[in-house]
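Posting this for the archive.
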Amino acid sequence: MSEISELLERFRRGGELVAVVTTGAAGPELNFSPGPGKWNIRQIVCHVSDAELVGAGRFRRAIAEDNPTILAYDQDAWATKLDYHKRKFSHAIEIFRSIRGENYELLKDLPETAYARNCTHSERGPMTLLDLLRMYAQHAENHARQIQSLRQEYKQAKAR
């Protein structure tokens, strides 16, 4: 299996992975934070949902335009100013899974040569479409692990 095929499979599974690790989380568990400045499960899921929307634009620009500049964004400002603490958890999961599925459909049939297309990230510098795919495949996986840890910390805090 090529690196692209492997990354596409990991990317595809990302929506389901986040849904699975949040299964059964509700009420106070969604809003549990292990400390000041640390995101809770609701905020993490809102973040991955919004990040996937941003990714949708980035993928499309990298595919359709010649060396586009893709902009960074301030994830903490988004979390605060877009009221992640109030957003509906189930809706954020649904949006993430839907956009991730749409992004996967866009990427899965591209020729391998397309993954060498260039873009320039406003903070990270030169990247390829393959770099973007790698980044977004890891993104869901990293946050799924973070959610698992948070759920464990919540159980421990509740048991005290």
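Residues 129-159 form the longest helix (31 residues). The domain at 3-159 is CATH 1.20.120.450 (Four Helix Bundle (Hemerythrin (Met), subunit A)).
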